[in-house]
Amino acid sequence: MIRFLAKRLTQALVVLLLVSVLVFVLLHLLPGGPARAILGVQATPDAVAHFNHRQGYDRSLPEQYVTYLGRLLTGDLGESYKLNQSVASLLAERLPKTALLAGLALALAAVVAVPLGVLQAVRRGRAADYLLTGVAILAYATPVFSSAWSSSWSSASNSSCCRPKRRRPTPSAASSPRPPRSSCPS
Amino acid sequence: MGLRTTRIRGLLGRWAAAALLGLPALVGCGPAGNVVTELGTTGGTPVEGGTATMALPPASTPNWIFPIGAPGYLASYNSAIQDLLFLRLFTPAQKGDALTMDSPRNLAEMPRYSDHHTTVSITLKKGYAWSDGTPVTTRDVKFWFDLIKDNKREWAGYSPKLMPDDVKEFETVDDRTFRLRLDRAYNPTWFTANELQDFVALPVHAWNPGNESPRRAFARLMRHAEQFSRFATDPLWKTVDGPWRIEKWTTSGQVSLVPNRAYRGPDKPRLDRVVLKPFTTADSEFNVLRAGGVDYGYLPPAVMAQSRQFKERGYRIDPWEGWAVTYLVLNFHHPTVGALLRQDYLRQALQHLIDQKGISRVIWHGSAAPTRGPVPAGLLDDEPYPYDPGRARTLLAGHGWAERDGTLRCVRPGPGADRCGAGVRGGQELRLSLLSQSGSTETSNTMQAVKSDFARAGIVLDVRQQPLNTVLGTTVPCERTEPLCAQWQLGFFGTQGSWYFPPDPSGEKIFASHAPSNMGSWSDPETDRLIRATEYSADPAALRDYGRTVARRLPVLWMPNPAYQVSAIRNDLRGVDQNPTLSLAPQNWYYVKKGGAGR
Fold first, then answer.
1. What is the dihedral of CA A10, A14, A15, A16, to 10 degrees?
2. Which residue among B18, B38, B159 places its CB closest to the CB of A154?
3. Cβ pair B473:A33 closer than 8 A
4. Which residue has the higher pLDDT, A157 or A34?
């Protein structure tokens, strides 16, 4: 058993290493390079060279790959220029919400799917079985953007808090110059 | 069972209704929605206070607060916010079609030039103070100058030979006056607009209380500037001299500004709060605008046809013209077509084949305007080479091009007035390849229109679309022998304007020989002479002469210049000035309510 696990683990490591090489090579094959993309059309050649030096793009490819792998293994995923933060901190910030959503979705799926599956098994070949199979196929076939919109519409139509209200046409007092806004989250 | 069936039927019915109602929304035929105000664009009584929410451009996340922008953080939305917190000594204000640096928002009086324009004396205006009560003095300006001088390679605004290299000495005269000794004589208009516009006062008493060296102080300040999540809470950024201070700055880039009650300038804020809201795409912004979620938003060009609905709902539609030009870059060093592109008659013929007015009207729905030359269109009288396919065909035929097998080929090679020109081979096909940015329907349609018009004269244009980053990385100045030089012939990266100018729209960075952003490697002694005149001579006509002449020389092909955005602003939100340099002045914004004569 231990031998089997060790073999599989070694295979997985080799695959991961190959994937990292592939990703690294593909990123370097992209035309253009990151300097102009980040610094923009106004960047001087000096600024581009300085950027490439600071980021290590002026080193040899094997050297860059070793640095990349070393940083990856130590959990250093680099910095996001777009959001001026480390990628690790961005992931950490968003991970709890993603985990909560994924967990809730999984729990909801189990709560709904298991009883319905039992029901279909019990009533196999009858109307409920065909109906639930049809609904499941429809749900699979519906594009995500369409089902998301339909869900939000149907839940909003049941909730008075999110029904759009007509704004008052003009501000009524100097202390509250803005018309009230619909409380429906956008 | 019956009850259960009803429930299933109800659920199914609701899903079916949702799907049916969703269809029109998906195809853009949704209901117009509610009216946000019944006020028109004039009238009403001004009221104090209120919150205004402004939409930021798509994928624009404010991410830098330190007024010295690090490379990669020089975006206009960052500097627009910084300028509301830390006053610049000189800011551009619109005056007719041009810009003036004599703005009431300036921290300094207009500069005085002496010693044959080699010395500039600047006096700070009286009475300005930091939010902690400390007066703003020349020490604060000297602090900024020392920081950029000792760390110029870390400053994104640095260009060799320009600020701070062109200042030999910074002399402090007194608490409010300082003098700059320059390395040579400069055109005062150019120097004030393009060099002094960088000057900003930074609170040295709060940011460098220990009198650290500029290098150490800069490194420490940069560490603070890289802590994006602490922009609103870091005490460092709370000492401001501008009309606003930061209330919130979320890591998603939403910024809330509230008035700085200690602000001493003439334009004190009238609103209680301004919220700058980021969006990932123009479509998401449009959905929020349609739901009434922003007071000052914009319409993507694709939905310009819906502008009437927005007017009916109480918005005014106002294109925000940028201080910019848009063009197709020509690679004069390309190994095979470089010689072709260097022929004046050919560039003129190509320009005659670009229907700028038609493209602006039809494809951009009026939200773009023809570029007339190397300066913003308002500074030039007309298009030097208007759309005229007949004239283009005459020019080509007159220079030895004739149709063979459906395409134009050079039949009279060699130099000479009626020949194809030096370096053009006999039998060479008139075929060009354009590398254009992808991701914009308007740009794709524009390029197809250009291709179609070129084809009418027998010119084949192959259009390749790539992401903007790839286009920017490929269309760079190159030498004939470099492999990269063979990878592009014509380039386009102007969906949001190719080049945004500093206040004085001179061409030293784009059209001067060997200029850093002269992507096509245009080199012309007359252009260089005219550009030098705009920088160094005191001739007030220098910029006009440069604009008129280079417009005709065609260092690039002029293309329709899209507005920075087509703004949709609530009719009861007034005082909005859409400065072409993309700065913001929300301290002038105010709401009006119904009644009274208004203003």
1. 100
2. B18
3. yes
4. A34
